Amino acid sequence: MEIIEAIKLIFVKEKRKWLYIFGFIVLTLIFIFLFAELQVLLTIEPDNIFMYFQIWRLKDWLMIITLSILISLNFVFFIYFLTRRQAQTIIQSTSTTLLGTLSAIFSGILATALCSSCLVALFSLLGISFASGILLLKYRFWIFIVSILFLLISLHLTSKKINKTCEC
Q1: How far apart are CA 161 and CA 166, in angstroms?
Q2: At residue 19, does pLDDT exceed 80?
Q3: Cα 76 to Cα 80: distance, rounded to the nearest angstrom
């Protein structure tokens, strides 16, 4: 309920609501493009980004769109919060927002991985072995669920601060 109230406050009642709406739409499109472009960059042979748009299944699209919307909403909430609060409470809110956002980006990368060879380069950069990478791919749906939970917790806590119902 807190999240819906914060959405109404930012996107309906705010004087600069068009700026926040535009920012939300642009961020959502950027994250959808980012997740698709990562797949192009991580493949051994460069492909066309439109090829990935064609071979993604409905489940892949739903995962990417859901993550992109929640990450963008998280950023808009955080930007709104930054413009309204003093520096003392910003540090406390940053860790919650970063945890939700980073876990969602990692989940988005796993969700768009159509083959294990696409992620070999990324996993090697992160220090994750190939066997661990295969295990992560096997459980990517559960990683997606955990990332959604982190994002929703982050949105809830940030919306409580926006609605001034939290003494955090």
Answers
A1: 5
A2: yes
A3: 6
